[in-house]
Amino acid sequence: MTIKLDDLYEEYGRYIYHLCLKLTRNKEEAEDVMQDVWVKVIRYNDKLDEIDNIKGWLTTICMNTFRDRYRKTVRKNEHVIQQPHTLDVPILDLVPSNSLTPSEIAERNDIQSLVSEKIGQLDAIYKNTIEYFYVYQYSLNEIAEVMKVSIGTVKSRLFRARNYLKEMLVDDHATYDYVTA
Hints:
75% of the residues lie in helices and 0% in strands. The chain is mostly helical. It has two domains: 90 residues, Orthogonal Bundle (Rna Polymerase Sigma Factor, Chain: A), CATH 1.10.1740; 79 residues, Orthogonal Bundle (Arc Repressor Mutant, subunit A), CATH 1.10.10.
């Protein structure tokens, strides 16, 4: 099946325009973003037949194009002028991003070190079971073979280990906020 650009535009043009308008909240800016989106679509015209979910692919292109344009604008310090006055958070915070903020990275590292410390305090049987399952990502069958026990025993040890670990994290004042949040 060959997908024609005219048919693609006819079917998804309004959807992409409304998405651009929702993101930019400005008719002229939405038209610019939409134009950039369709330029990218034309660039990948020869690969359109390989795409399973056209609407999802177009949505991703639209979101990434908007995000890129907004970041360029932020770098030029024009974001103060273009941000709607009724919006109390930066627009970029509303656009999903796969990258973590520095504070999220620091918090994740803190949590990892606290949990690692608590895992080290578990009895050897529970510690090994947790490590095999979560760190080395062994299946329950593989853990049963390595530890020479039944799968039911592995499941119960894993259940108990998680409960003991949770109790230890809740009892520790340094980790209480991470566990209960």
